[in-house]
Amino acid sequence: MDNSETRLVTIFENVFPDLPTDRIPNASQDSVQNWDSVAAITLMNLIEEEFGIQMDFDDLGELTSFKKILAYVEGKVAQTA
Amino acid sequence: MKLAEALSIVRKAPADGLPLKVVLACGFTPLHLQNFFAAHLQQAHPDRKIEVSVGLFEDIPGTLKLLGKHGVQAGALVLEWADLDSRLGYRQLGGWGQRVIPSILENVKARLKHLEALISEIPSSATLAVSLPTLSLPPGFHTAGWQVSEAELALHELVISFGRNLAAHPSVSIVSEQRLNADSPVSARYDFRSDLNTGFPYSSQHAAVLGRALAALLNPPKPKKGLITDLDDTLWAGLIGEVGHEQVSWDLASHTQFHGLYQQMLGALADQGVLIAVASKNTAEIAQKGLARTDLMISGDKIFPVEIHWEPKSGSVARILKAWNIGADSVVFVDDSPMELAEIHSAHPDVECLQFPKADYQAGFAFLQKLRDLFGKPRLSEEDSFRLESIRQGQQFHEATKGGDSTEQLLAAANAQVTLEFNPPASDKRVVELVNKTNQFNLNGVRFTDGEWHEKADDPNTITLAVSYQDKFGPLGKIAVVRGTREDHSLRVNAWVMSCRAFSRRIEYQTLLRLFERHGAASIAFDFVPTPKNKPMADFLRELLDQEPTNGVVLTREKFQEKLPKLYHQLIEKNG
């Protein structure tokens, strides 16, 4: 697991405390019951806080799984680097 | 605190911890404010599981009505301008400008009146922390931003008046605007993007500060009880032994005003019941002349005891603690000398040592704020006004014993009056305060929130007894509280505390005697638990029982009668 992925897993652990860590890499809105709009905004704020990036609210609708969020974050981090 | 840390704290709450139910009432999506609020409460109650419920979206009245019900005994109300009239926010397009201002003012007035009525119905057993609007008003006023309009002032006036009325409610505390301004700059509070996209108007930083402030109001730290101060270059500027009592100073002209402000602060603290003492290395008769100066900003009779000699100050502090009969962790020691502070810290590690900042204006300003925080209490009680006097009287009482009067003669001649108040009203905050701040004569050290204490009072088998005392030396006020339950022909005492100021007057015996008599109990069981500080309680029970006290230990009426000394109190009984 690379550094970004580890940091994102920690974020998911905080937002979804009932989700086992080994299931996080495959987590999606469909598979996680508590992944509602509040959880999505909390994820967004934690990601901004942790990675120092600004996310666009319009992108939230597309960010429906751990894998998609990881790819999005890595792209944003690369842009700001 | 960062959001990740807040979530982590909440996540790590003990799953099997006793729930502490709290409501958060606000007119916007509470999002991270809820997380920060919960995290700070969790830190204050590490053994509990904090459950913050937020009620229905935008339903502030409905959420407030949950207070005092279903085990919810504490809550926070967070108001923003948009909650008072949606046109004062950015999420609804209801019109701005001069045309709508009269209707906005009417609306805000009616809304605040309604909220005030709702809050006045909150049971006094519950506690509510309130935050008045913290965000700026929107730009819908006719003046430029650097000029305040009459309408804006009118809105502020309505909110201030509302806050002032709430502050008089015994269950309500209000977040300090001044402190919030210092901790969370106004310009960094509002998150326009978040407000428009999610309905949450605060920046994470502001939510963190506000969450902490609300949690602090619901769990204020225990105020310190006493301050021991040095004299030279602390209470006054100059070394009195060298320059003489007329030359030490504390005024603007001598550029020593800060010492006058410190005296003034000590005077104010003494008036609110804080004990003030002096520990100084000096020649006593010279330093006493300084203390006798009539322009001192704290009256000399407010300072007790006064230890002035050339012996180590650690000994002075030990004697002062003994005279006050309070724990070292309730005391602050102030001195300009780092060496003296180090000596006190080494001998009395629980005493909070503060260096007097005599040459640093900024540090001096912060020092005064620090004193306010250390000694501040949510409300003053009657006992605060005569605490020092009762300590002096206690000394006279003990001196009289030493002076050859036998204890029996002294007690017989004391004209002691014990007032027993059964089931005192929930509005009497002194009862829970006494239970939560008494350490030495304390059955088990269990602390209660207001809500937890009063929740049990509703049980018909619960007995609560508050004890007040006075004698010819003066009143001690409310000094003891007992909480128990009736069980057939016996009683079980779950909580029992008595202020150390009331020791040696046999009030504990009188209390037990009346409990046996009034309830026809054949025995009393005690939920005793040893704590690091409750040796006086353990000693008392050991003496009564002729055995080491344990949890659930039982005292029979026969055994108590065997041990009961002669009592000289005049009794008054009341029912709350």
Fraction of residues in β-strands of chain B = 15-25%
- Mean pLDDT of chain B comes to 91
| CATH homologous superfamily label of chain A | ACP-like
Level-1 CATH class name of chain A: Mainly Alpha
Number of domains of chain B: 3
- Distance between termini of chain B? 44 Å
Tell me, rounded to a whole number, the average pLDDT of chain A: 90
N- and C-termini, Cα separation of chain A: 21 Å
Count of runs of 4 or more consecutive helical residues of chain A: 3
Name the assembly state.
heterodimer
Name the biggest interface.
A-B, 14 and 15 residues
Structural class by secondary-structure content of chain A? mainly alpha
Estimate percent helicity of chain B: 40-55%
What is the CATH fold-level name of chain A?
Answer: Non-ribosomal Peptide Synthetase Peptidyl Carrier Protein, Chain A
CATH architecture of the largest domain in chain B: 3-Layer(aba) Sandwich
Shape of chain A: globular
Query: How much is the radius of gyration of chain B in Å?
Result: 27 Å
Please identify the structural class of chain B as seen in this structure: alpha/beta
Summarize the main sheet of chain B: 8 strands, mixed
Write a short abstract of this structure.
The complex is a heterodimer of chains A (81) and B (576). Chain A has 81 residues and is mainly alpha-helical. Chain A has three helices and no strands.
Task: Give the helix/strand layout.
The complex is a heterodimer of chains A (81) and B (576).
Chain A: H1 3-15, H2 37-51, H3 66-80
Helix pairs in contact in A: 1-2, 1-3
Chain B: H1 3-11, E1 18-26, H2 31-44, E2 48-53, H3 60-64, E3 74-78, H4 81-84, H5 101-120, E4 127-131, H6 150-167, E5 172-174, H7 177-183, H8 192-198, H9 204-218, E6 226-229, H10 240-243, H11 257-271, E7 275-281, H12 284-291, E8 303-309, H13 313-324, E9 331-335, H14 338-347, E10 352-355, H15 361-375, H16 382-385, H17 387-402, H18 407-412, E11 417-422, H19 429-437, E12 441-442, H20 450-457, E13 462-471, E14 474-487, E15 490-498, H21 507-519, E16 523-527, H22 535-545, E17 551-556, H23 557-563, E18 570-575
Parallel strand pairs in B: 1-2, 1-3, 3-4, 4-5, 6-7, 6-9, 7-8, 9-10, 11-18, 15-16
Antiparallel strand pairs in B: 11-13, 12-15, 13-14, 14-15, 16-17
